[in-house]
Amino acid sequence: MLAWTCPAPLRDGPRVVMGHGGGGALSAELLEQVVLPGLGEAGPGALTDAAAVELGGARLAFSTDSFVVRPLFFPGGSIGDLAVNGTVNDLAMSGARAAFLSCGMILEEGVEIDTVSRVAAALGEAARTAGVRVVTGDTKVVESGHGDGVYLTTSGIGLIPDGVDLRPERVVPGDVVIVSGSIGAHGVAILSERENLRFGVEIESDCAALGGLVRDMLAVTPDLHVLRDPTRGGLAASLNEIAAASGTGVVIREGAVPVPEPVANACAVLGLDPMYVANEGKLVAFVPREHADAVLAAMRAHPLGAEAAVVGEAVPEHPGMVVARTGLGGTRVVDLPLGEQLPRIC
């Protein structure tokens, strides 16, 4: 633990710090103040999990992501699983069915060939499970000491069905907030393996491809308003991004958010808030109230949504802000995290 790096340093420093990769306020500032101004008109519009673009009369979703997790293999998954499922899930959050992936590998000189083979095998198995094909890619090698074994970058494309329009601007007061299951397992699994911490029971990552679950939800109604997979920054970051983009407030019931007991206990010991811990196989949905019961039932009928729960709603009060109602009857503000409680988790 003596080697841990503070993920939330001062915000006015001249150099990139670990917190800039945490999916919170520092990440947003880096994009808005440095990256996007440099891109100019070539830059993206709304910053979403995947861009919806038109090509030849078809609506496509296009996404890319990089993976630098440490360790490479952890309970419940590996960097290969993350690379596939992370990109497939980003496409699914736009309603698209993933079709093709590319994969870029950056290998550090000296990494064992067996390690590369295991990563490739995990990546291939995850792609087959998710129903996608890896059709192109690239491999580079950097000098020893200039990497961390294996880094992966995956990009994906998929088709968005007609009538599907998932974006935070469609959220309105009264929408019901549903999470697909218990939160926090991925971040705690990474931490326990990285630091050799044991909590009386092995906690496994929830890493999984969510395309099938999303298709079952859309089969109930294509009129879902927005989906997000709460990865970096956890559920809190996703809710804050949606609230800010939609101009609505969000109220959640703290006791309704499903947190596994081992994860809750580990977070209590370590001083972490499960709301900010990363997930890799969960989604949060804002659903019109008239469709909420049917969508929830469809989610619970799917293996990846068996623990789905209604946790709150969008409200007209406090626009752009997320608040939680506590078990004692009070409320607390759930801010956008500054950095990341657990760096290098995806």
TrEMBL record:
Signal peptide: none annotated. SUPFAM superfamilies: PurM C-terminal domain-like, PurM N-terminal domain-like. Residues 173-318 form the PurM-like C-terminal domain. It holds the Pfam family AIRS_C. Residues 49-160 form the PurM-like N-terminal domain. CDD domains: HypE (cd02197). GO terms for biological process: protein maturation. PANTHER family: CARBAMOYL DEHYDRATASE HYPE, HYDROGENASE ISOENZYMES FORMATION PROTEIN HYPE. Belongs to the HypE family. This is Hydrogenase expression/formation protein HypE. It comes from Streptomyces tagetis. The lineage of its organism: Bacteria, Bacillati, Actinomycetota, Actinomycetes, Kitasatosporales. The gene is hypE.
